[in-house]
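Project standup — Tuesday

K.O.: blocked on the structure for the chain from last sprint. Re-posting the sequence here as requested.
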Amino acid sequence: MGGIINLDSSTIIKTLDYLVIAIFAISVISGFVKGMFKTTYNLIVFIGLMLLGWFLMPAIIEFLLDYNFSSFNLSINGSALTTIRETLPVIVGSMDATIGSLMVEGTETYNLVFALAFSAFRLILMLVWLILTLTVFKFVFWIIYLIIRPRRKDAQGNIKKKSFASRFGGAVMGGAFAFIITVLVAIPFAGLTSIGNSFGAIAGNETEVSYHFKAATTNGYLFLEEEPEDPLAEFQEVFNFMSQFRGDSLLGQIGGIGGSEDGEKSSIDEALFDQLLEFKYGDVQVELRQEIKTMASAYVQIYNATGGIINMNTISNLDTAVLDSVLGKISELQILNVIAPVAIEYVGNNEDIIGELSEAGLSQEDIAQIIEDVKKIDIAAEIGTIASAVVDLGKSGLFDEQPEGEENNIFTTLLNADSAMLGSAMDKLGGLGISDMIGSFGANAVLNGPIFEQIFTQFGISKEDINLDGIDWGSEIANLGGIIDALQEMGLVIKEDGSIDFSDLSTEGISAFVDELFKSTLLGNNTKLIVATVKQALPEEVQDFIQVDDLTSEDFKAILEVGSTVASYIDEETGQVDFEGLLKSDAAEKLGEAIENSDAMAKTIEDTMGKILENVGIGINFDDFDITGIDWSKEVVALGAIMSSLEKYGLKFGSESVSFNINDFTTAEIEDMVDTLFTSQILSKNTRVLMQAIKDMVPSAYKDQVEVKTMTAAEVKAILNNLRS
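H.V.: unblocked you, prediction finished:
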């Protein structure tokens, strides 16, 4: 076994067997010689003293904690020893300034330190008590025995001889005494081998190894130069002993009475080991052996299942049964229910961290409340659920690394993710008892953090615009799964350059996504943030169409409809929107329907119509238009129809207009053109602008005959017919 020990496991097992046989032999023979009374007396005294010591131990420890050791002039780490209760906080507090500030009665840290100290003192004092039982106390009770023992002589003064029944009873009691001694000897072995067996499973795992080959000196063949050594070979005999202790040794078999083969039920020696090394923290009872064994077992299971390569990717790809088993073990760890409140208390009292939390808007009262909330939660079970959710997130592809040279953003990540696994993860996270606590804390931290400050600036909103009132964070988190699923079904496409194509969103997909989105109280309360986020995601050419900063669900649907429609008419080479092609296409009707369903969208179109008309060739200042009472859902369709109609006659507004010769048109054609122009509410309400456009199009010789003023359709027809004649 290398440099560890020169004995192999079988030799150690045999040695322990000889020890057990010796204990039983000596005890049985001693009992046979001493007889029933003395052996029974010694057994009762021993058991009684050990039980007495166990039950008296709390009182003894409390006495020692408050005993003043000043007269001994002792010091520990430079601190004079007075009472342990006074000195221990000073010693522990000297290790860290934050811990020092927390070593006062009533804090979580103080309670944990003294819970651990109590457990340590109990273990030490029980060993001392055992030594006293076998020495000093044995002497005292031997004297008592001399007083109470039966008379050794009969009435005639003859020494009584012990009967066979007495000697046989003494041998039986001696065997019982040997059993107790054997169990006591087995306690440390049982505890350590129970823990070690879990780690020992790694040694038996078949792992891949790299063999080294070299060319032979003749005929060029390759042969194995040397087989690499097993890195755990040095400890192999230790693992062998641990695995063989319970089943192959008398010590393990005797101490193992009462235990189950699957380890679900502890044996006598393991139960006593747990009692000696457990500690109680509030309502949480932590058995160190069970905790270490559980952690080791979970680690080994992952190690073996991943071939020793443990990372998020390998864990995410584990078999579901393996994952459930590992997460089940994690949820059993009571130590987590101890660590969580202590860790949060430490975080909440560390000056550096406090400064950061204060900047994040978290007060000392908030921190104190979080600590109290954490104490009420089964953190072990929660962490098991969190771990399961993280695995689901890993399986969804959320943590996948992008190939070198490629960039990613939150939209492309979510669109490529497995929505079923994301939904599963969000459901699990939303069901956590700490969801509300973490959600509230996290929201405040994020809102007050430097990253979100940059986002506020980029999106043009302020922190005061965010409304977090009445939010059930668990429901919010759970609802994210449905939102992401609807986002993927909406029809977004990721282009080769990583950008997002909004041009082919389906009406049904938009409706389902927005409905899912507005189930969220958080998002429903903060539509300004939704608008800002969507505006940033849309192409720059489309962003100008969003002139509102607040909206309803119907408004949001309309914005996405309009954004998708406009995006489909962006020239990929120039990046410009083909407004003329848009308005003359069937998509104009889709625009109209979107506008009709949204007051906010109508306002947006109203604010951007000037840009649209300028882009389609009407070079007139839109500020001069009277646009009150315009039905924009009909207007965008009308404008497209006008352009299509005029195009039949070879006409075009603006700088690109052809020469307009009125004599090229019949009276019917002129009247048809005018009727078409007057289908536009804008043009019919702003005939001054219309007449200016006509004046610009006619040859110079006729311009004086076109009067720029408000007119009816009939008046416009009359002027044009006069020009023709």
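K.O.: great, moving the ticket to review. Residues 1-151 form one domain. Strands lie at 75-76, 79-80, 212-215, 222-226, 278-281, 284-287, 493-494, 500-501.
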